[in-house]
Design a protein that fits this description.
The protein has four domains: 304 residues, Thiamin diphosphate (ThDP)-binding fold, Pyr/PP domains (Rossmann fold), CATH 3.40.50.970; 195 residues, 3-Layer(aba) Sandwich (Rossmann fold), CATH 3.40.50; 76 residues, Orthogonal Bundle (DNA polymerase, domain 1), CATH 1.10.150; 36 residues, no CATH class. The protein is built from 24 helices and 17 strands. The chain has a six-stranded parallel β-sheet with strand order 9-8-10-11-13-12, with helices on both faces. The protein has a five-stranded parallel β-sheet with strand order 1-2-3-7-6, with helices on both faces. Helix 14 links the parallel strand 8 and strand 9. The longest helix has 32 residues. The model has no long low-confidence stretch (mean pLDDT 93).
């Protein structure tokens, strides 16, 4: 009967790919035998795909999606045969690679290796859930995580990162089934992959078995052994790609293209199936698979009794994990405090963690620099602080799995420049619409001495461009707190891009708020320049605006004084007339010169300056510009370079040029001298 069940899956997969005229029949057909035996071990309820204590089944090789859908349909999930016939069609519940809108799909997989790391995250979540929820005489969390992967998954670096973590944590609830068919799109795996996988995993702290992936007895024995393991468990299943597909069995040509009608017919006939029937499921096969419904109902009912038997404290904790109450969080006030936003974020993280039992996370070996340690809350798996090591990509994918578990709100932390290493996982988080919080510190050129390799520039636009991903770059502590309030209420991942350097606290904005995505901090009457900034540049813009406002005030005072002096020598209404010429701009000596020409006092602008407006003349007023040290400082804060340009163009002796150069050196450490 097992073979008939497996062949039914094989031909459903072949028919789905053929009907769509695209897809990957090889891996699903090769894994069918394993899937049939595994189905007898799985603890799940097709009528309730979100039952908390279910086993999680992850298909890391997302191209094997037809296997996923065949299994879900046969097992009784809300996935009809008509949906199988819509395989790879827009708007169906059977897309080319698994997505979480399909009932029974745990995580979105496609990019290889992601599912392996997701499975590690699910296993970590199960361990933590068991530690906090299980009572001495009542274990409500006691399930396993199974993951099917292939050669391509284990070639990806993310799988190495994730499995290293799993081995270090001794995740004995994790079973990784490796479909070792030695085939890639380009041919035999030997052209690019020749390592000893068994030795690799054993070196990482895994227990490993090697079986014939088509021998039902070996498959069953290997799965039975999983319950006895004290470490994560790898089952290397040697299989034939496109098993049963006649001359295409074992060929890389079966990996990513339909088998063809004739080959499918021949394969069905050889297996004793009607070659003319498509999407055929015999009643006896369906009954075997659909036994999962009754079995799952019973298991969940028994589990519900366990939940009812929890202590009051246990029930309250479970409810707070399932339904986090963000209103309990007491966000701090950072007014009048000049702090780096990584520092204010540290305070915020700890306040959130105190009030939300499901808020956990960690850093890629940078917690002291990221300021992400949750004080006094212990280390995973007994506490909330997760130590990921220098594994950014795996960290993010693992936290995607933790988020998908259903009880926890995870955060990932690293330097912003290293977000490049985890972006694929961040994108998957956005596609799944999960609450996963990314803490990125050491933003922009404020990193300073670390140099260009550590100065993130284009990373900001990359994350801002990602659909369903929200990037917050707070300008001070209070904006940081407001950003977290907004992010916690989003059904999407969020990033917090934070400064290393201290930032001046900002005044309350005039219009709008953080939740709008932007707001007006301050305004001025008849403004001629609009400053738009985020993060650490906002305080610089505030300083620049204040500087310009002060300069405008000084210019206006000077203009009025010039007008008054001209009045004294007989030029009536000088200021008013110059003002007309300036329009909305600032009144300068040039406007007065033009007016003097218009009224016939002089014949040209040069004469106006020579007779009235030049230095030492009757209408001359000395300017009051910003001093050079302040100017250099503002240029440097904005990330610019101060340039002392072409001093020899001016009528100064070398003595004065040298003196001025020395003054510039004293005023600003970094500047360029251009001769």
């Amino acid at each position: 009967m097992l073979k008939k069940q497996a062949d039914t899956i094989r031909f459903l997969c072949a028919d789905m790919v053929q009907n769509a005229n695209s897809g990957h029949p090889g891996a699903p057909m090769g894994l069918a035998d394993i899937m049939v035996v595994l189905s007898n071990f799985l603890k799940h309820n097709p009528k309730n795909p979100k039952w908390l204590n279910r086993d999680r089944l992850v298909f890391s090789g997302g191209h094997a999606s037809s296997l996923v859908y065949s299994f879900l349909h046969l097992s009784g999930y809300d996935l009809s045969l008509d949906e199988l016939k819509k395989f790879r069609q827009l708007g169906s519940n059977t897309p080319g690679h698994p997505e979480i809108h399909t009932p029974g799909v745990e995580v979105a997989t496609g990019p290889l290796g992601q599912g392996v790391a997701n499975a590690v995250g699910l296993a970590m979540a199960e361990k933590y859930a068991a530690n906090v929820l299980n009572e001495s005489d009542n274990k409500i969390i006691d399930h396993k995580i199974y993951c099917l992967c292939g050669d391509g998954d284990l070639e990806e670096g993310i799988s190495y990162e994730a499995c290293s973590i799993a081995g270090n944590l001794r995740l004995d609830n994790l079973v990784l089934i490796y479909d070792s068919n030695n085939i890639t799109i380009e041919g035999d795996t030997a052209i690019a992959f020749s390592e000893d996988v068994k030795a690799r995993f054993e070196a990482q702290g895994w227990e490993v078995a090697r079986i014939d992936g088509h021998d039902y007895n070996q498959i069953e024995f290997a799965l039975e052994q999983a319950s006895e393991k004290e470490s994560p468990y790898l089952i290397i299943a040697n299989t034939h790609i496109a098993r049963g597909a006649m001359e295409l069995e074992g060929s890389h040509h079966s990996h990513g293209a339909p088998l063809g009608e004739e080959i499918i017919k021949k394969a069905k006939a050889a297996a004793g199936f009607d070659p003319e029937k498509k999407f055929a499921i015999d009643e006896d096969v369906l009954l075997r698979f659909r036994g999962a419904v009754e079995k799952g109902d019973l298991e969940e009912a028994m589990w519900n009794k366990k939940v009812e038997a929890l202590s009051i404290e246990g029930k309250n904790l479970l409810n707070s994990l399932l339904n986090p109450d963000f209103s309990k969080i007491e966000f701090p006030d950072f007014s009048d405090k000049k702090l780096a936003t990584r520092d204010t974020n540290h305070v915020i993280l700890n306040e959130i963690a105190k009030k939300l039992p499901g808020f956990i996370g960690g850093s890629a070996d940078l917690a002291p620099s990221n300021k992400t340690e949750l004080k006094g809350m212990g280390d995973f798996p007994n506490g909330k602080n997760i130590h990921y090591g220098i594994r950014e990509h795996a960290m993010a994918a693992i936290n995607n799995g933790i988020a998908r578990y259903g009880l926890f709100l995870p955060f990932s932390a690293t330097f912003f420049i290293f977000s490049d290493y985890l972006k694929p996982s961040a994108r998957i988080a956005a596609l799944m619409g999960i609450k996963h919080f990314f803490v990125f510190t050491h933003d922009s050129i404020g990193v300073g001495e670390d140099g260009p390799t550590h100065q993130p520039i284009e990373q900001l636009s990359t994350f801002r461009a990602m659909p369903n991903f929200y990037t917050f770059r707070p300008a001070d502590g209070n904006e940081n707190a407001a950003s977290w309030q907004a992010a916690l209420n989003l059904n999407a991942p969020s990033a917090f891009v934070l400064s290393r350097q201290g930032l001046d606290p900002l005044a309350k904005g005039e219009f709008g708020e953080v939740g709008n995505g932007a707001y007006l901090l301050s305004s001025a009457k008849d403004a001629k320049i609009t400053f738009i900034a985020s993060g650490s540049e906002v305080s610089l813009c505030v300083k620049a605006a204040a500087l310009l406002a002060e300069q405008a005030k000084l210019r206006e005072i000077r203009a009025q004084e010039i007008g008054a002096k001209l009045e004294k020598i007989g030029v009536e209404n000088a200021y008013a007339e110059a003002k007309k010429l300036a329009g909305n701009g600032e009144v300068t000596r040039a406007h007065y010169a033009r007016h003097l020409v218009q009224i016939g006092k002089v014949s040209n602008d040069g004469q106006a300056f020579k007779r009235y407006l030049g230095q030492g003349k009757s209408a001359y007023v000395k300017p009051q510009w910003v001093d050079i040290p302040t100017t250099i400082d503002i240029i440097h804060q904005a990330g610019g370079v101060a340039v002392f340009a072409h001093p020899l163009r001016y009528t100064m002796t070398m003595k004065w040029v040298r003196k001025l150069t020395e003054s510039f050196k004293a005023w600003g450490k970094y500047f360029y001298l251009c001769w």
